[in-house]
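[Solved] Which block belongs to which protein?

Original post:
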Amino acid sequence: MLEKLIEIVGASHVLTGEQAQPYLVDWRGRYKGAARAVVRPGTTDEVAAVVKCCVAHRVPIVTVGGNTGLCGGATPDDSGTAVVLATSRLNRIRAIDTDNDTMTVEAGCVLQMLQEAAQKADRLFPLSLAAEGSCTIGGNLATNAGGTQVLRYGNTRELALGLEVVTAEGEIWDGLRGLRKDNTGYDLRDLFIGSEGTLGVITAVTLKLYPLPVAQRTAMLALNSLEDAVTFLSKARAGFGASLTGFEVMAGPVLQAVVRLFDQQRIPFEGESAQSPWFALLELSDSESAEHAQARFEEVLGQAIEDGLVQDAAIAQNVTQSKAFWHLRESIPLAEAELGKSIKHDVSIPISRIAEFVQVTNAAIQADYPGVHNVVFGHLGDGNLHYNVAPAQGQPQEMLLALQDQIYALVHDSVAAFNGSISAEHGIGQLKRDEMPRYKSAVELGLMRSIKNALDPKGLLNPGKVLSV
């Protein structure tokens, strides 16, 4: 089989031994697997040939992009039976159509590269997340990634018009249609997006582009409560309309930990405002002018301050200040890493119930595990919270991690009680696979298994992910 793979992609693109190791460990170092080889095809035809070769030898296939996932979805098991298919060489931008506002690109393209290519064409590709300098669009599609602009533009699924996919039998489905309307039967595209490589190998995508905003305004807000943040979000939606592109929320202690750990960071407030229990970060993208954006910002924020919903506001006066505000938000995971391993949750809750969820769940966590730190932040605009639990002062991280299963159950049971989801944007992978039967009905899981069995009857695509056997 290895000889055939070398014949398909060339000897330099079939990695074994030490060369393969970086592909066999997930980004967090949580999962470590083994593989017969790592194969790096350079074209869709080569991907199809690799899949056919693996099918002929009954060898499982695990697809990996930028390897930035947080749930172990791109890491093989430790049996050593799988082939890892790396998409890094599928990195071409095939076409940009500014009249149709679309861009057709290959799955191994790094997200930041796509943002920059769109900007050069005087267009915006709005998907944006912390790992954009290394994650790939194929991985974004496989997990239906969210990011900071979901409020305005939607998840990756909403940004994809058509796909090219290699099926579990090694056939190529060319669905790269740049159409906003296509009502010809089942929507195959949406089956593959979010399936984490368990139904097919995404090799290319046609993406939506948007006009570049004429002006952007960013503000950091100091708030007294999460309830006030939710109320102000409603008023911001009404005041800004579709111009509101981002609305992030951060618990005060979380942001204060960032500035404590990183000397170059600072919260843009003085006195009591810098010690607020909650902060919000919002961004406005205006299609008229900088003056119009500034006026709208000042009007809506001024009214919120007058109403007592916002205690203080700092509006970025230039691009540098705006980047500094976003850098604060994006440094939270780095601060968490500095403080030691924590138990992470990526959940979504109906926005109207988020404040109650946090209050109830925080109380339950402290009742059972006194002193641990509740690290709460996320994308309030789309109801996505990163609800993490960090060790108590002086508590060895191993002691907390030993409680992981119990804490997962507590938090996820609370999520279910509030009609939420245990995965908002990170996927299921290995991490949450065994929890699916606890929160999905037998009917829903049965339908998912039927789809898996229909599209991958031999069970060779990314086995052990999303669904248990």
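(Second protein starts here: sequence line, then its structure tokens.)
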Amino acid sequence: SQGEGIGNTFLADIRNTDALIHVLRCFDDPNLPHVEGSVDPVRDKETVDLELAIKDLDSVEKKMQKLEKLAKIGEKEAKKGLEVLELYKNHLENFQPVRTAAVRDRDRQWIDDLFLLTAKPVMYVCNVDDSSAVGGNRYTEMLRKAVAGEETEVLIIAAALEADIAELEQMED
């Protein structure tokens, strides 16, 4: 979507996935400028997280509107659903992903049909330069600190090096 913002089509496509893999730039290269002007994987992660949360908040609010109508005509289950969705709404409004909300497992039924983006497990892939492939660098450390409280994995790869190796393997065939 023109380099900024996550397009609605893309968001609709990832709604059907079981997990998200978030690739983050963790290298400096003056020949490859970053769209934001500087490399900051934590900022980039937070930007995407915010857009996912906004989309989820919209989905939760739409479902709440439907349940409010049912609750007005005395539907008891709808009232319970509204209470649970209010918890999720508050969590999202506080910039927290749905997957970290303190909601009982049996109450998660109220969001199961929404396929919320921030409910999905996330793996972060740090794309680093060749020299940082084994131990990481200051950018990967920044990200590790930022996600320390999350139940997630952080993987470090040197994508350019991987591409070079794949190209060599194709030449051998």
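Accepted answer:
You had them paired correctly. Confirming on the second one: The mean pLDDT is 89.
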